[in-house]
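User: quick one, fold this
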Amino acid sequence: MTIDYVMLEHSSMKNVIALPMTATVAPNVISSTNRRHGRNRQLVLDALERAQKPLGAYELLELLREDGLRAPLQIYRALDQLIGDGTVHKIESLSAYALCTGLECGNHGHAAFAICRACGRTSEFHDPELHRVLRLLARKEGFRTTATTIELSGLCESCAHG
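Assistant:
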């Protein structure tokens, strides 16, 4: 399964910047939290970075058994802390977790994902205009959001034309 992460700097699609999941992206996101990661959190972060795709908690547990993680609770605690730090996103429709690649994510919890139903390719993107519209809609409903995750399901360009 291939995963590409994309960040939109502006609401115009011609301003898309692709951020591949590499060691040069993840440390920037992780270090921006200014929070020291414990052993379990670091193991989970490293596993997500190596996988370069969203992983479920039990997939992470299986990958990290040799490192001493034996209980699902260890994985879920680490994931909860990483989500709180803004370094990991939960993709609800996949029941999976992805390393945040948007440098502006921080801990505000706003992200959007495009998920291909055919190949599983998952792209993270951010659009300030979309975030603004969602804030306005929430305000109109008398609601204050603490996190927003949008999941678009469909076909990626390759699968749509292939």
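User: anything notable?
Assistant: The CA atoms of residues 27 and 101 lie 10 Å apart.
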